[in-house]
Design goal:
mainly alpha; elongated
């Protein structure tokens, strides 16, 4: 049981990081898009206000939904997996 929980946690962590990289570009306005002049060697592609708290919460609930769908698919055998012997 503990092994299953630990495996589930790490799979959720992988899903979370994958979803984070999909969420990061949302609601971002760069300096170049806003027409703001960049000084002191800044990058014009950097976001003005990255809204990281909103993105972290959005990533968390989207990841939970994706993970739950994956668990349902796995336990209901909706997609057949190859027979891999488990030691």
């Amino acid at each position: 049981m503990l092994r299953m929980l630990v495996n589930g946690f790490f799979i959720y962590l992988l899903v979370w990081w994958t979803v984070l990289f999909c969420i990061l570009p949302l609601r971002s306005t760069t300096y170049a898009e806003a027409g703001v002049e960049v000084t002191d060697g800044g990058d014009p592609g950097a976001p003005i206000d990255p809204k990281l708290k909103w993105k972290a919460w959005t990533t968390t609930w989207v990841s939970a939904i994706v993970f739950a769908i994956g668990v349902v698919i796995f336990y209901l055998h909706l997609i057949p997996l190859p027979n891999i012997p488990i030691k």
